[in-house]
Amino acid sequence: MNRCVWLLARLPARPGPSPRHAGAASVAFRSLGGLRHPSRAAASSSERNGGRAPDTALFVPLHVQPLAPGPEGDIGAELTQPLNKSEVLKILNKFYKRKEMQRLGGENGLDARLFHQAFISFRKYIMESSFLSADVHIILNDICCGAGHVDDLFPFFLRHAKQIFPMLDCMDDLRKISDLRLPPNWYPEARAIQRKIVFHAGPTNSGKTHHAIQRYLAAKSGIYCGPLKLLAHEIFQKSNDASVPCDLVTGEERVLVDPEGRQATHVACTIEMCSVTSPYEVAVIDEIQMIRDPARGWAWTRALLGLSAEEVHVCGEAAAIDLVTELMYSTGEEVEVRNYKRLTPITVLDYALESLDNLRPGDCIVCFNKNDIYSVSRQIEARGLECAVIYGSLPPGTKLTQAKKFNDPDDPCKILVATDAIGMGLNLSIKRIIFNSLIKPSINEKGEKEMDAITTSQALQISGRAGRFSSMFKEGEVTTMHRDDLVLLKEILNRSVPPIETAGLHPTAEQIEMFAYHLPDATLSNLMDIFVSLSQVDGLYFVCNVDDFKFLADMIQHIPLNLRVRYVFCTAPINKKQPFVCTSLLKFARQFSRNEPLTFDWICRHTNWPLVPPKNIKDLVHLEAVHDVFDLYLWLSYRFMDMFPDANLVRDIQKELDNIIQIGVRSITRLIRASEATSVSGAIAVPDDFPLQRTEVNDRMLNLEDLPAANQEQFSSATKVPGQKRIRGSKALGYKPAEVQSNMKSHGQGSLAARLVREGLLTQEMLKQLEREWQVHHNNNGNFPTGKKDHQNGSTGTGKKKK
């Protein structure tokens, strides 16, 4: 026995206490310190969870390598005897089936899912190891010989479970880190002063922001926080024009007006870039209703709670008054509300436009996708009218140029075709807003894409652009393209805007780093998942959607980067639907990991600079993506200056690229015609990111909008299903013709069609159109007809209404 004690003393230290062989199962069972008393374990588990159990599906098990013999040999076999692996397997399976063991596992944090995963790993480890640690070997030998009970394995099973699920040992710490119930306490500088909160509430064009900016300009120091670069630029320009020195800070740009580089007393910034440690006399937070935004709401919450200013002026919809008041109650600050009314009248017309022939100067047609933008602008210029085009992915310079072209009374361009990008950030001289459709794709709080009618808030924001106080039109008008939509528009506008109830929060880099300290082997995406799962918020807050963050985290997971750098890369503001931009981020990260600076020459090679004006829509889309890549470079350059050293040179070529894109947008109908020729000839395949509608016949792609006007009417009449009434506008919501369902299902496409509609990639109008084309193609035995498409009754881009 002395030899046994001497050999056991020579064993290397292992994580956690482990029982020595004592010949009695009860001794081994009680000796493991990691096993909690059942009653205390249950109580502490309930206290920790706070009524909310973690989502254990997010717990990714780590791999534990089977042991190989060390220099000291197999001590367990030397003390007892070699194990019979077939008998050991029977013992392990018996252990798994024991209800008492599953109950003990639950009391120690192992629910049914984790218990099963831990057992599979434990069994594999035992069976595949060429030798086992002496303590495990001795216990298994005792059980095989009848000197022990199968339950004696639990302490060793639990030790193994904590090795593959390290979060089990630190759940209390993880819950404390992810406790988001007191956000005001995160900003000690703001809590150290008594702030005055002024809420300027009112609709679009009511002067609310103007009054806040006047106070900002009169202050000794101030900060303006806006949702867009265009708005920050506007206040930056306005301040300096008023002889109030003002700096500009956006994610991609820093402009110091002082020639010696000293900071000005005033700064205009995008809201994510505001400083919560610098003191100011006055702060202005614009568009406060975006505090509910599923992706960006955290930035407004951070600014509202954290800006260290004597006066905080908040501008936005009255729907946010109650929430802001409650948030400020938690900080001990009162809110003064100033209400404003619209400065100019606006009228909802009793008639729809119905035809582009009825357009008049000052009209703005609002579409919610690029396809409709291209289609409508082409049809307008086919009537001999010039139109300006504005949509979200255009560079800010191009948007301003198009806005200036439309606003210029001496310019022949009198019509504007735009997305809801005009809702804020641009001063436009619009007489009448015309909704081409009332269906807009959106992302809900779960990150799911939906096709639904626009909200009252969105409708008011867009409609309010008509008849602005500073424009040449002192009265505004609103209507729809289709008569069927007008009733729904009036209904939407007559609804009261529901009050905003919650404010967004987002995990910080510091919180994720603390998580990683406890879970060093977890991926960043998994850390974020676990954080959100364990996070606790009170009724005034919600955790913002982190799907875009996780997408980038998974994309660069294989690249060796430290956690802080990886986190920064994952917060880069890029559109994950643009493959070229995502590929560029991946290359940036790989180059960074090699400690190789991304020079001007490198970025020029990557983007094939210099570039030429676009020849078709595909080229224009690519140029917009390249502009976004330059933005990404500039954004990273302010966070890693040594690795992205040529920001000034990149900014110079970005300005050149902006001019090139402007050339393309000015001649957008020519680009569409060039794309038509390419598509119809079949010489070049239409790219996947080409934004026009497509139909597939005989494995060849044909754009309906690309056909010459003379052929479109023939095509429309040839493909129309007899007796089927065309559904337009909002009537298309929820409309599913029986022919569509039966034909799509007969071709095995029912589930695909439903998924494409659900994800917003296919609308009901497009679905009906595909069904008609397929029917005609089938009736003609594969002879695809040529014909003309009815412009008036073309696709409106409407989709299925959410129920």
UniProtKB/TrEMBL annotation:
One GO cellular component term noted in the UniProt record for this chain: mitochondrial nucleoid
Localization of this protein: Mitochondrion matrix, Mitochondrion nucleoid
Nucleotide-binding listed as a keyword: yes
Cofactor(s) needed for function: Mn(2+); Mg(2+)
Keywords of the record: ATP-binding, Helicase, Hydrolase, Mitochondrion, Mitochondrion nucleoid, Nucleotide-binding, Transit peptide
Residue ranges of the region described as Disordered: 778-803
Protein's name in the database: ATP-dependent RNA helicase SUPV3L1, mitochondrial
GO molecular function term, any single one: RNA helicase activity
Family: Belongs to the helicase family.
Pfam families membership: DEXQc_Suv3, Helicase_C, SUV3_C, Suv3_C_1, Suv3_N
Catalytic reaction list: ATP + H2O = ADP + phosphate + H(+)
Main location: mitochondrion
Species this chain originates from: Mauremys mutica (yellowpond turtle)
